[in-house]
Amino acid sequence: MISRAIVSLLFLTSAIAGPAFAQQAQPTTPPLGSPAATITIPGDQLPPAPPKFGGTITEDAKTSKPWWPPTVVPPKGAPNVLLIMTDDSGFGVPSTFGGVIPTPTLDRVAKNGLRYTQFHSTALCSPTRAALITGRNHHSVGFGQISEFATGYPGYNSIIGPEHASIGRILSDNGYATSWFGKNHNTPSFQYSAAGPFDQWPSGMGFQYFYGFMGGESDQWTPYLFRDHTPVYPWVGRKDYNLVTDMADDAIRYMKELDASAPEKPFLVYYVPGATHDPHQPTKEWIDKISKMHLFDQGWEKLRDQIFANQKRLGVIPANTQLTPWPDDLPKWDSLSDVKKKIVTREADVFAAYTAYVDNEIGRVIQAVEDMGKLDNTLIIYINGDNGTSAEGSMMGTPNWLTVANGVLDLPEVEYLRYYESWGSDQTYPHMAVPWAWAFDTPFKWVKQVASHFGGTRQGMAISWPGHINDVGGIRPQFHHVIDIVPTILDAAGIKAPDMVDGIRQKPIEGVSMAYTFDKANANAPSKRTTQYFEMFANRGIYHEGWYAATTPPEPPWLVGTKALPPIEQYKWELYNIAEDFSQANDVAAKNPEKLEELQAAFVAEAKKYQVFPLDNSVLPRLLTPRPSGTAGRTEFTYVGENADIPIANAPSLLNRNYTITAEITVPRGGAEGMIATMGGRFGGYGLYLLKGKPVFVYNLLNLKRYRWEGGVGAEDWLGQSLSPGKHKIAFDFKYDGPGLGKGGTGVLSVDGRVLSQQKMEHTIPFMMAIDESMDVGLDTRTAVDDSYTLPFRFTGTIDKLTYNIKPEQLAEEDRKAVQKAATKAND
Question: Which class in CATH covers the domain with range 636-814?
Answer without folding.
Answer: mainly beta
